[in-house]
Amino acid sequence: MAVRALWDSTIGKKTVMAVTGLMMVAFLFLHMLGNLKIFFGATDFNAYAAWLRTIGEPFLHFTWYLWIQRVVLAVALVLHIVSAWQLSRRDRRARPVKYAHGLRPQASFATHTMRWGGVIIAVFLIWHLLDLTVGAVNPNFVPGKPYQAVVADFQVWWINIVYIIGVVMVGLHINHGFWSAAQTLGVNRPVRDVAIRATGTTVALLITLGFLTVPIGVMTGLVH
Amino acid sequence: MNLTLRIWRQPGPDAGGSMVTYQVSDVSPDMSFLEVLDVLNERLIRAGEQPVAFDHDCREGICGSCAMVINGRPHGPEQTTTTCQLHLRSFRDGDVIDVEPWRARPFPVIKDLVVDRSAFDRIISSGGYITSPTGSAPEAHSILVPKPVADLAFENATCIGCGACVAACPNGSAMLFTAAKVAHLNSLPQGQPERESRVLSMVATMDAEGFGGCTNTGECAAACPKGIPLSSIANLNREYLHALRAGRA
Ligand code: SF4
Ligand code: FES
């Protein structure tokens, strides 16, 4: 009953978006921290990647944890996108006629780019998975040797640009999304507002900068 | 002052409409915006034309009738000011001012600047009240209400149901309005028995009326003539999720 009511209401769908969004932010934060291991060299980084496959052993079989996490994140992503899609359609229907004198004084760039930015992030994500998880579009991809694949990747100028744009879009998305999630889940209150906004911006900045250090590291020759 | 007004004219609900340009000259900076429309309408009537239809009643900022979007902002450029309390001193001589009706599917245009806001009435009638008979104003000490709670309830009770929040929202969302009513009634002792059913059914009606969802952009609170804060929407979400958990859905 409650689950049905949740999914059928606008507030409910926003709640789904908030929870799944926060799950993905948590994952991105850990992903970013893991990426930084690249600065310790190929052996460390590849060993870290191999270790990810052994999490939970011996209780879990080899790579099971990774697959569980992948399934959970995929479900979260699908729910996030479906909710966003359905809510956006409803929102557009609710405002069929534009103002002749259009103004949106409050909206920041991040707020403006939530929908299209989200689509760009989705496209970026598909490419990123094909590039560095599956390796389908990466000629230098060898399973078990992610360090070499990453370093070869960021030698190519356009891959750097695609990656940087993707990561910056993710940062902007989180900057609005984190506070928005706090608002949707009802945990925001006037006395916490500034702290929650600041936390969201800090998390967005840390994730963006953390991810950007890898291509910058390769470009500057720090990682080779 | 001389002004150029570009006003949305639409003869009826199903007719097409367009922006029509009017010049008004020799108006005083101390006139309210509605008085300028009165001056224009007298002229139009004398010329045998249809006057501009617009809603108005109290003209003192408490009834919420005077709905119009002025230069892209509901109730015009001044913060926490209704159109009837907006004066020409907020504009400059020679300004071109665009005047449009609220734009949202649940608020269809009836004529010119007048829109049908009965969707708000249906939200209220689905839970924006308390069922126990309250009679005349009770003795203030008979039911104790802590000061912060009274302040919160009062702040939200100032909502005049004008619909500027919907008009300002890029999604045509009625969250701020609904949030104000829920915060007002759900925070007071008299509102407790229906605390969960109220929020569930008001939100269900809000959704059924076709209002959009909240994307937390904050245009509503910036446009609200009564300064209902965005935190009321967080409170509405909290009340809603609490009611769902309480199993009242
Ligand atoms: S919340 Fe503000 S803008 Fe919305 S109806 Fe109430 S008074 Fe008007
Ligand atoms: S006419 Fe009543 S609030 Fe403006």
What's the CATH topology label of chain A?
3 helical TM bundles of succinate and fumarate reductases
Based on the structure, what is the oligomeric state of the protein chains?
heterodimer
Which range best describes the helical content of chain B: under 10%, 10-25%, 25-40%, 40-55%, 55-70% or over 70%?
Answer: 25-40%
Rg of chain A computed from alpha carbons, rounded to a whole number of angstroms: 20 Å
3D structure, described in words:
The complex is a heterodimer of chains A (224) and B (249). Chain A is built from 9 helices and no strands. Chain A has 224 residues and is mainly α. Chain A is globular. The mean pLDDT of chain A is 94. The mean pLDDT of chain B is 95. Chain B starts with a strand and ends with a helix. Chain B is elongated. In chain B, the strands form 2 sheets. Chain B has a 5-stranded mixed sheet. In chain B, strands 6-7 form a two-stranded antiparallel sheet. Chain B is of the alpha+beta class and 249 residues long. The complex binds iron/sulfur cluster (SF4) and FE2/S2 (inorganic) cluster. FE2/S2 (inorganic) cluster binds at residues 56-59, 61-66, 82-84 of chain B.
Topology:
The complex is a heterodimer of chains A (224) and B (249).
Chain A lengths: L1 H7 L1 H26 L6 H11 L11 H31 L14 H4 L1 H19 L13 H8 L3 H28 L8 H27 L5
Helix pairs in contact in A: 1-2, 2-4, 2-8, 2-9, 6-8, 8-9
Chain B lengths: L2 E7 L8 E7 L8 H14 L22 E2 L2 E2 L21 E5 L8 E3 L2 E2 L2 H8 L21 H11 L6 H5 L6 H13 L7 H14 L10 H5 L7 H15 L4
Parallel strand pairs in B: 1-5
Antiparallel strand pairs in B: 1-2, 3-4, 3-5, 6-7
Helix pairs in contact in B: 2-6, 3-5, 5-6, 5-8, 6-8
